Amino acid sequence: MHQNLQLTKDYIKRKIGDFEPEIGIILGTGLGGLVEDIEILHKLMYSNIPNFPISTLEFHSGKLIFGILSGKRVVAMQGRLHYYEGYDMKQITFPVRVMKLLGIQKLFVSNASGALNPAYKKGDLMIIDDHINMQTDNPLRGRNSDELGPRFPDMSEPYNREMIARGMGIAKKNNITCHQGVYVSVNGPNLETRAEYRFLRNIGADAVGMSTVPEVIVANHMSLPVFAISVLTDEGFPDTLQAVSLEEIIKTAVEAEPKMTKILKDLILEL
Where do the coiled-coil regions begin and end (predicted)? Predict the structure, then answer.
């Protein structure tokens, strides 16, 4: 892994010169619009970056964006990777390790997820304060690289409490409906059955999705503070469950994105 990381870092550095990002951003499904607010200085296609996985989803752009957002130097993944695409967890989280080696000091993650908490509604936002990992692999499985992090990283605070509090404050100030809750990650790509939604709610989850947790595990492994936010694109309430299509999920994500973008931009400005 070290050799691949170094090759990838060296390639990117040749393309971006002395630009050193402070903040890394992973943009979730239907949430790539934040890029429009970035003063773009460099743009690299995943397909041109050595060792970089390529997003297989038609609605994910697959670009690494370098620029200025809210006065900070950022690198944004426009198009994230998922386990259900066929990649292993080390491939999915490889970009997080690359961004850390490029110099980022904080990681921001967004995703589209389904509401499990009956107090939540489609189109609301949820800042993640903890998670439950129901995925069947772990990005840290195998021989540990002590240079990157410890064999048994602590996960008592996977999401940075200060950034959570600031994010909730920004939402309140701007009258944005935003909850604070627990995210559960599953393999996908199918959505859940009524019984599965009921089970996930019963074990303590407020929202369910198919991403985020692997990247957060690796970020914690590398001592990288994380802020994560979900756009709730559908409602997984067993007693009133209705069929939902990808088109509906994307539409809801796009409609709610400006609220998420406001929180992210203002939070980055405050840091």
Answer: none
